[in-house]
Amino acid sequence: MAATSASTASGQVLPATVQDALRTSDYIYVATERKDGQRSEAKPIWFYYDQGKIFFTTSPDAWKAKRIAQGSPLYINVGTADGPGLIGKAEPVTDPALIDRMGDAYGKKYWIAWLGLFKPRSDRVSEGKTKAYLVTLQPASAGS
User: Fold this and answer.
1) Which residues neighbour 38 within 8 Å (Cβ) at sequence distance 6 or greater?
2) N or C: lower Cβ tally within 10 Å for the chain?
3) pLDDT number for residue 141
4) Where are the domains of the chain?
């Protein structure tokens, strides 16, 4: 895959090592901010990285979905719990074509998704059974 230049919302370019980690890692570890200001425990999740954008899905009942809805930033470590750090804002994705493209990408990346399990599907998002998100990275977020 050819390297592309990925940048934050402010146009800041991500370091090549972070871009490489996003292209090759199976997981990102995400945490959100609790009401008391404390950061939640980072949990590994599957993700799709394309053209400088990070996409992921979760259950609408998950704490991360509830905290994202309340405006929590998303704290991301790429590849491992202590991998390259990023901070972003997760916005809901409802576009069926994009969600199905995420599902196709999951199917190529994760063997169980290739079987049709645990991959994003637009019908599940439209029925409220799954939440899909696009992460907009914040300025000066690398290395957090």
Assistant:
1) none
2) N
3) 43
4) 16-137
Q: How far apart are CA 110 and CA 120, in angstroms?
A: 12
CATH among 2.30.110.10, 1.10.645.10, 3.40.50.300, 3.30.450.20 for 16-137: 2.30.110.10
Q: What's residue 53's pLDDT?
A: 87
Per the CB < 8 A criterion, the answer to whether 28 and 77 are in contact is yes
90 confidence band (pLDDT: 50, 70, 90)? very high
Paired with 89 in beta bridges are 136
H-type alpha helices, the chain: 16-24, 63-69, 96-109, 111-114, 122-126
Structure tokens at 118: 């645990």
Q: In one letter, which amino acid is 101? A: R
pLDDT at residue 81 greater than cutoff 80: yes
Helix (H, G, I), strand (E, B) or coil at 80: coil
Region 34-59: mean pLDDT is: 91
pLDDT level of residue 126 (50, 70, 90 thresholds): confident
The conformation of residue 35, written as its DSSP 8-state character, comes to: T
* Residue where the block lists tokens 């230049």: 5
Tokens of 37: 């200001």
